[in-house]
Design goal:
The protein is α+β, with helices and mostly antiparallel strands. The protein has one domain: (Glycosyl)asparaginase (Glutamine Phosphoribosylpyrophosphate, subunit 1, domain 1). A hairpin with a 4-residue loop joins strand 8 and strand 9. Helix 8 crosses helix 9. About 5% of the residues have low confidence. Bound molecules: aspartic acid. Aspartic acid (ASP) binds next to strand 9.
Length: about 325
Amino acid sequence: MPAATLVIHGGAGTLLRSAMTSEIEHLYTEALHSILKQGATLLSGGASALDAVTLAVSLLEDCPLFNAGKGSVYTRAGTHEMDAAIMDGESLRAGAIAGVSHLRNPIQAARLVMQHSEHVLLCGAGAESFAASHGAQLEAPQYFHTETRYQQWQRATQQSGTHLDHDTANLLEKHASDAPIDPDKKFGTVGAVALDSAGNLAAATSTGGMSNKLPGRIGDSPIIGAGCYADNRTAAMSATGTGEAFMRSLALYDIAAQMRYLQRSLAEASAHCIMDILPRYGGRGGIIGIDRAGNIALPFNTEGMYRGVVRIHESPVVAIYANQ
Ligand code: ASP
């Protein structure tokens, strides 16, 4: 039986070489490290893959370094609209929410949709009231504001708008503006996949979407088979990148189909998808995946992807750049 394993990502993109100081790198790797350790502790106590990916993505959502939950990017209208999905590889049940602006942890709301509704995907106000009626925590819009994302949005709209005072930004936000991966060219979705000690797989993905997106735009993250997918027969996977390309190519389902019908390994199928198929759709980004034997794959066609792996009773391994 392979060891229970958790794999996470915090988005892929273009490296900002000027910002590669060891101090800033340390901030990102420490955040990934700490989340992996908490996930591994849960898994080593016999928790399900579903619980492990829910915890890991909730922690990534709470960390302002990443574009999900607190730290989500701004839409063109200056609002936050978040998407998330979760899938259980054993039952093949899935839940997702899209275009929500007040849910502190969108991934937990997606799980509520999976477990307490007869639907797969709820959006907007209906998703928020459904989740709140099942105990999900709501936040005022200011909760999701971070100085980094606000400035990023200002640059994107090329307005000279009022700049908030950097002095008031907390340490994380201050450093996030110097992120190793360029925040202006980064796909900042977060995600987790896990294999538990019972041999089951699960996947979870959560995002603020693309900076300066049109209000109402929904990306791949909450679309089952595009940004999130899990099937015990093949693999659990979470994507980050150009959402429209992942949707048009049904990227994650394509990987699962290659594995199931062509008997390709996760590594072969995911490399083919990310390096060959996705670019034909104009897509940039990457995925994380794990199969039932504990094989993992983390291909990306950008310069970097925040990522990490932990097998229980072993130390977490985290990386940002290619060839690491
Ligand atoms: N895939 C996400 C989206 O299109 C963006 C990202 O990965 O950051 O919404």
